[in-house]
Known about the structure:
single chain, mainly alpha, 6 helices, 64% helix, two-stranded parallel sheet, 2 strands
Amino acid sequence: MLGIALSCxxxxxxxxxxxxxxxxxxxxxxxxxxxxxxxxxxPFSQFFRSQTLFGPLFDAFGNVILxxxxxxxxxxxxxxxxxxxxxxxxxxFFGSLTIEIMQYIFRLxxxxxxxxxxxxxxxxxxxxxxxxxxxxxxxxxxxxxxxACISFAILVALGPRLGDPAKVVG
Length: 170
């Protein structure tokens, strides 16, 4: 079940980071806005570029939360491995780095150092949670991750039928 959950959540991560140009969930984003290449190598510069704090904070928490399940599931799969948290953190880093490179190469959005930092932190926190939470809680958390995957698939299937385009601002 861990492998299935990790595979499903990995697909969610890929969909939310590299494939937003090809689908939409309601009117959360405009797919056409993701057919470009951008590079932001200065850490946390978005906080200084943005007119409000909502966008940068939403992105920051979203990036951490996106990789929490990856770290959690990897820690359970690699249970007992030496330097478990280090291994999970490194895997999160290289997974995120791969995404950022692919986004840049294939013009699938912004390649941002913040994403790399925050995704890595999310994987590390997920791994830490797996090591600190009681063992009885692991199975329910894995089921919640699978439920989140199913919920995401339903939202993608409903696509633009969610929301009212006349009420979208901007």
